[in-house]
From TrEMBL, chain A:
Gene3D superfamilies: 1.50.10.20. This is Terpenoid cyclases/protein prenyltransferase alpha-alpha toroid. PANTHER family: GERANYLGERANYL TRANSFERASE TYPE BETA SUBUNIT, GERANYLGERANYL TRANSFERASE TYPE-1 SUBUNIT BETA. One of its GO terms (molecular function) is metal ion binding. Keywords: Metal-binding, Prenyltransferase, Repeat, Transferase, Zinc. InterPro entries: PGGT1B-like (IPR045089), Prenyltrans (IPR001330), Terpenoid_cyclase/PrenylTrfase (IPR008930). Residues 11-332 form the Prenyltransferase alpha-alpha toroid domain. Its cofactor is Zn(2+). SUPFAM superfamilies: Terpenoid cyclases/Protein prenyltransferases (SSF48239). The lineage of its organism: Eukaryota, Fungi, Dikarya, Basidiomycota, Agaricomycotina. It comes from the Eukaryota. The keyword Metal-binding applies. GO terms for cellular component: CAAX-protein geranylgeranyltransferase complex.
UniProtKB/TrEMBL annotation, chain B:
It is an enzyme of class 2 (transferase). InterPro entries: Prenyl_trans_a. GO terms for cellular component: CAAX-protein geranylgeranyltransferase complex; protein farnesyltransferase complex. Keywords: Magnesium, Prenyltransferase, Repeat, Transferase. This is Protein farnesyltransferase/geranylgeranyltransferase type-1 subunit alpha. The keyword Transferase applies. It comes from Rhodocollybia butyracea.
Length: 361, 334
């Protein structure tokens, strides 16, 4: 199934252009991203980082002023410190910005995770980071059942937020404010009979939350994972069966392939040590077919591209470099640096983040 | 006749809002990924920030937050403030729920719509009509993750015997519409084996028999359906039943149609339908698992089946089947 088709080139330059354009501005049709802009910034800058085009595509001045913008989202207050998604609830007066946040402008766990990674991509030295304050935020967001809410006192709680809290603790190298036992029992409650994990207890197995469960358990400072060999095998089987004939992965049994699930399920397999069982050539060919002719990668062929699917497709390729053959046009366009599959960043960026964010640094 | 939608009146031009000082969003000179807001959104959120500053919670705040939500249903602070306002002014939450019926269908895929509904339900505490509403949304999208997760939460949280009564029939209806709807299969498992287990259903033997017949019938109608095979494995695992017990049922599905033996009416082991695409990869995999568990000489039968999957019936997972063969052979050598 490998050599009988040619791999088209990966349009690296066009994808970098797409990421660069989104960083400069998004049309009004993307209004739903208003309260999640930090994540958009992460996907765009992350895509440039994976493509190793950050230096070429973004001027030093822009990089510095973007760092400054991110630090402006770093806030302190009664629930601890962290980053907000954007200034979408921030008022203009300078005085108010420097005092502590209100209940309507608190830091957000998922946005704190993406802000830390984005700053690492920009090679920030994190000297402004209130590390102890972030530990407090983690504590303020953990619920009794072990799950985490996105913002202190309210908001969504599901596995996604738990993962982000775990990455933050991992980067700080300090787990003192997380109740691991409760967190693990929450993860266990999300396991489904299919072998994957749902978004919260009783929910259907889904690729995104399965990745999160696998990565979270691997990140936690415990000597053995709580999964039995049989459970692991079941998860691996479920994950592998979601790779469809097109080479792409679907997120749930009997659904259609989607570029983002190539990352979520591919990443789960990588973490489970089963990455080499994935057919990386047909996977690359699926992602090639999701390329939009003017740059960017879409969730499926013929759809419109967005930063989320573009980044996750490139991250997938960083984990699963396809074998390239002589008859492939531009085989070199498919070569990437390795990715840290647990925190979801280029290896070098992940190492930088760990080095500068760790509390003992 | 042309219908033009008039631009809504700005808050700045509405006398009833002139006591509120709008507050602009603060942006750095070089913002990251800015969104080019429409004037309408900018105007509404300026007044929303103004309201938050004074802490006002009133009827007009409900209008304002509804306006913002309709422009951007993911604006979680607008939802948060709206909910607090509803409680503060003791608004009629059932009215709010009716408004949400419309918004939920318009913004089916937005998390906040369902989160808000959950908060309302924690106050109203009347879950039964919600199940009817959800059934209606499934006509639009029968696999919507948020909706299913809301339904599962309602059932498990309120966990009232009456609430569960129609659940199995409901699942069957959805499976009749689409036998490959994995969300419905998942919900079946949740209902029959997990939170839905009710008093008076302690006779699990009877339930198990019923479910085995159901899933086998479903496989016989459409053998190439991963959801049904996963359900079969799920109930066997859950009840600690060895896969071996299914060998009579599974074998015909691993053969070509013309290799099938004569029809015998056997409810326990329904044969593949005449139109089935055979052999079925899921059945071969299942049979190989049976042989693998038997070990010894049967392991070689398992490796033969894996070989046929990798070379013929499930080529895209060739690497995986080769791995199973290696692992299997290693197991019998030690
Ligand atoms: Zn997707």
């Amino acid at each position: 199934m490998t050599k009988d088709f040619n791999l088209p080139p990966l349009a690296r330059l066009a994808h970098a252009g797409h990421a660069r354009r989104c960083l400069s501005g998004l049309p009004d049709s993307q209004i739903e991203l208003d309260s999640g802009r930090m994540a958009v910034a992460f996907y765009c800058l992350g895509a440039l980082d994976l493509l190793k085009m950050l230096q070429d595509k973004v001027s030093m001045t822009d990089r510095e002023s973007w760092q400054e913008w991110i630090w402006e989202q770093h806030t302190r207050g009664k629930y601890g410190s962290g980053f907000r998604p954007s200034p979408f609830m921030t008022v203009s007066s300078e005085v108010e910005r420097t005092t502590s946040y209100t209940d309507y402008d608190t830091p957000h766990i998922i946005m704190t995770y993406t802000a830390l990674l984005t700053l690492a991509i920009l090679r920030d030295d994190f000297s402004q980071l209130d590390k102890q304050g972030i530990l407090l935020l983690l504590k303020a967001c953990q619920r009794e059942d072990g799950s985490f809410s996105t913002i202190p006192g309210g908001g969504e709680t599901d596995l996604r937020t738990l993962y982000c809290a775990f990455v933050i603790a991992h980067l700080l190298d300090d787990w003192s404010t997380i109740n691991l036992q409760n967190a693990f029992s929450f993860i266990a409650s999300c396991r489904s009979y299919e072998g994957g994990y749902g978004q919260s207890a009783h929910c259907e197995a889904n690729g995104g939350t399965t990745y999160i469960a696998m990565a979270a358990m691997e990140l936690a400072p415990v000597s053995t994972t709580p999964l039995t060999a049989l459970e692991k095998r079941k998860t691996i089987e479920w994950a592998l069966h979601n790779q469809l004939e097109s080479g792409g992965f679907c997120g749930r049994t009997n659904k259609l392939a989607d570029a983002c699930y190539c990352f979520w399920i591919g990443g789960s397999l990588k973490i489970l040590g089963a990455g080499d069982l994935v057919d990386s050539r047909s996977l690359a060919s699926f992602l090639a077919s999701c390329q939009f002719r003017f740059g960017g990668i879409a969730k499926a062929p013929g759809e419109h591209p967005d930063p989320y699917h573009t980044y996750l497709s490139l991250a997938t390729l960083s984990m699963f470099p396809p074998p390239v053959y002589e008859n492939d046009a531009s085989g070199s366009s498919w070569i990437f640096d390795p990715l840290d599959p647990l925190i979801n960043a280029r290896q070098e960026t992940a190492d930088w983040a760990r080095k500068y964010i760790a509390i003992k640094h | 006749m042309s219908v033009s939608v008039p631009e809504p009146l700005r808050y700045a031009d509405r006398p009833e809002w002139n006591d509120v000082a709008p507050v602009e969003q603060y942006e750095n000179v070089n913002p990251l990924a800015p969104i080019f807001y429409t004037n309408e959104y900018k105007d509404a959120t300026d007044y929303f920030r103004g309201i938050i500053k004074t802490g006002e919670k009133s009827q007009r705040v409900l209008q304002l937050t509804e306006h913002i939500i309709r422009l951007n249903p993911a604006h979680y602070t607008a939802w948060q403030y709206r909910y607090e306002t509803l409680l503060a002014i003791e608004a009629n939450l059932e009215d709010e729920l009716r408004l949400m019926d419309e918004l939920a269908i318009t913004y089916l895929k937005t998390y906040q719509v369902w989160h808000h509904r959950r908060l309302l339900m924690l106050q109203i505490r009347k879950p039964a009509p919600e199940l009817v509403f959800i059934a209606r949304t499934f006509q639009v999208d029968p696999k919507n993750y948020h909706t299913w997760s809301y339904r599962q939460w309602l059932l498990a949280y309120f966990n009232d015997a009456n609430l569960w009564i129609g659940e199995l029939d409901f699942v069957e209806e959805l499976l009749n519409d689409d036998i490959r709807n994995n969300s419905a299969w998942h919900h079946r498992f949740f209902t029959v084996w997990q939170s839905g287990v009710r008093e008076g259903e302690e006779d699990r033997e009877r339930v198990l028999r019923r479910e085995l017949i159901y899933v086998k019938q479903s496989i016989s109608l459409a053998p190439n359906n991963a959801s049904a095979w996963n359900y079969l494995r799920g109930i066997l695992d859950h009840n600690s039943i060895p896969y071996q017990k299914m060998i009579t049922f599974v074998q015909p599905y691993t053969l070509l149609l013309d290799e099938q033996v004569a029809d015998l009416v056997d409810l326990e082991n329904p044969p593949p339908s005449k139109s089935a695409h055979l052999p079925c990869a899921s059945a071969i995999e299942f049979l190989a698992d049976i042989y693998e568990a038997e070990g010894g000489n049967s392991m070689l039968k398992a490796t033969e089946l894996w070989k046929s999957l990798g070379n013929e019936h499930d080529i895209s997972r060739k690497k995986y089947w080769e791995y199973r063969i290696r692992e299997g052979l290693r197991a019998i050598q030690t």
